[in-house]
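REQUEST
  id: r-88c1
  op: predict_structure
  target: MULE transposase domain-containing protein
  payload:
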Amino acid sequence: MTFCAAFAFMECEKTENYTWVLEKLKGMMDPNALPSVIVIDRELALMNAITNVFPHATNLLCRWHIGKNVLAKCRKMFDDKMWEEFICSWGLVVLSASVAQYEERLCVLKRNFEMVPAALEYVEKNWLVPYKERAESSHSKLKNHLENSQCNFDTIWEKIHRLMLLQVTEVKASFEKSLNYVQHDFRTTLFDRLRGAVSSNAMTLVLATSHQVKWFVESKHVANIPLPIELIHDHWKRLSLLAPQNEGSMEETLLAHFDCFYNKFLNEDQYDVKVNYVKKMQELAHPKSSTLLEPKVNAQPRGRKSTKEKNAAKEQNSTRRDPSEFEHVLASLQTPKLVKEKPRRNLKGKAKVPAQLLICPFINQFLEAIRPYIESVKDVEDDGN
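RESPONSE
  id: r-88c1
  status: 200
  body:
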């Protein structure tokens, strides 16, 4: 399942900012459980930061972002019909399941669209040469919890905290499902050693490739033998939120970090730097001693806001992101629709229904002398007499 591990506020999207965030995230993680695969959207600054902080992790690119970048850069090079053919052929290249299939589909792409060398050069230079991996895109639920982009830090922290608690509950529920619930498809001999020991999602993936497993079993003459648990990656064996490292070793690690800080404080020659260290420690130990205050908000603004100001405030508070480059490209290619004006009806000569007739539909059936004294008329159904 997909869940959020951490959130960060950054001043700008530069390599040093991303490096700081990733180092803080790495410091909270178990050294023996660092990520081996990281999926991003080809943000160059983020890619450089990942290389510095997680040098052993495989850096993959989100397939959805690849498609949108190709759309933004290459859409204007084709007409509508040729673009559909190009994007379909490109999609087949991205979805290649093997190296041989990738090479074959790439040759077809180059042969069919050799008349547009700029597009081929872009996709090959920016996407195909450096990256041949496949990855799925992910989605975040944070916007649904924030509801507003103009929140103070306390409000945002509280909403993020609720989101994290909700996700912890969902993760625990998925663990309980893997430990206690067994699907009918997993009751075969093949899953005897996996049931209750690995995630149900992992067994679903094994089941999806059961035809390959069946071929392997039949070719090796090892039918009705359970699948060894050693073939499953350790990632799928984690069915608890408890840290795999014992508390004693964690305590020693924390003390070692504190000793490094203490030694740096003792060896510092400048008095001002030492004072700054003490202030930082005091703010951590006693947050109320901090001199930082939130800006005051005018709770009683004078005058009523105009419609323009209300719309501007609504747009400012929106959590909707700014349009991406591919969205600007699509907007420029769309033909504006002509709005047909509705013909105005000529009301001249149309009889106006009297108000009294609308209130009393049968008023004309009574004598004119008594009409002013009639307040309502009701037409009852006949009873057969």
